Fold these 3 entries.
Entry 1:
Amino acid sequence: MSLRTRRKSWSRLALFGVGGTLLALIAGAAFLALAQGIAPGGSVVKSLACSPQPCLDVQDYTIWVSNVTVADGLVRMNATFRNSSPSTHADPSDLQLVDANKQSSPSIQDAPGCTHWSRTEFNNGAKLGPLAICFRPATTGSPLTLRWTPDMGLICCEADLKIR
């Protein structure tokens, strides 16, 4: 067997090995997404049943929203979390308010009456809140949607809750 033939053979084997590894990684990610009931890549998922409404339940991690008010360009709501999921924490950066123009705004903590909070570790069915969560969107007209992206690990999700 010539040197050139051996190189072709090794190149072909290496190409098959890389392709097989890539295929196995994609299959593993798809399996995890299906096993967890969510889609990969931060796609919007449907909430599991929860009450009292309005609420979102993503893999037994629940957020309840109440007392939504809009005044002087500020949207304020109370939020309570209960975590019985694989996630270990709540974080203000997990919440965005999407306005009627599809513009998202992060939560703010510098307005009077808004709870100042940071990443909070809790799980095993523990509750957090109620917290006064505030947003300063570009517009306060309906619809207003709370977008929640809880940290569920490598493959994550987001869920939307129409609040007004």
Entry 2:
Amino acid sequence: MKPQAVALALLLSAMAPWAVAAGDAAAGRKVFASCANCHAVGPAARHGFGPHLNALVGRKAGTSPGYAYSTGMKGSGLVWNEATLTAFLRDPNAVVPGTKMRYWGLGMNERKVADLLAYLAAAQGG
């Protein structure tokens, strides 16, 4: 991972320890609607244009079996947790240069990020 991305992830981890707890899963479901064009989550989730997002937290980036990840994602060294997901959702290309994800990110909208993380946790029962 680039030094700037590491610094951003560390900064965000210090700023957002409350994000999942403060998130609103119902509001996050609405945020996820734009993600659902490429990703799925829940018992029937399958890979689409993007990988499914089940069992995401704690998983090493680029390792969900059956999905063709970019070289950048496979080599990122990230492990998905609240801090890395928050940083990635805010600016995917800054965190994983070369990612296949064509999404501009949620910017610094802390509420939307927290809501989305709460939805992802609730959608997979965790």
Entry 3:
Amino acid sequence: MTTDFDKAASGYDASFTHSVIGKRQRRHVYGFLSEVLEKHQPKTVLEVNCGTGEDAIWLANQNIRVTATDISEEMIRLAKGKSNAANPVFSQVDINELPKHFTGEKFDLIFSNFGGLNCLSEVRLELFFRNAAQLLSEKGQLILVIMPRNTIWEQCYFLAKADFKNIFRRKKANAIANVDGQKVITYYYDPKEAVTLARHYFDFRKLNPVGIFLPPSYLEPFFRNRPSLIGFLDKLEMKFHKLPFLAKHADHYFIFFQKR
């Protein structure tokens, strides 16, 4: 796993962070996230699966003290190269060992963006919820962006290609996802499954689709030179992105929990 993401790190910003689709999807996440930050005003954030640090830097610019972690040494190296400030602090940490690494520390908010938690099996994901509850302050927030099983864009894409084997690939117990040329075992979770796994530690608060009209990032080559089309899809996204029932059909979904 570490080696896979180390290999993917060099191309990640080009293929997603700075891509036409990636920037638009991220902007929608920041819109939802800003609403939570404004209401709850967390002072400390722990980001898991931080990748190359784009979200950690954005959070730090909101005057929040940010600790950002990733299992990949190369992702962390690239993230550190983006920021010269003391905030955020980047550390290479295995998500399964968070309590051990942050013994005695508490955070007001834990955040994971764009499917980082989809690398966890069901058992590991439930363990993450338990660990997150231990690391959060009283009534702390947990915000996750997860990939669901029933993405309409993906099903239509494979249907159009007559690739019937992959139309419902996300429904497989341990599907394979392509991350910048690296094949990574991936587990997809619909919102109800995430709520069920978190139920002993968190109360569900909010759900929004991310990428219900905006396409998945692997369609970037098609949309890169079609600004009018992607702009039209983005307008549709803005119109419907507050409808929670669409979340299970989107490319990702934004889900907000509060610690009990």
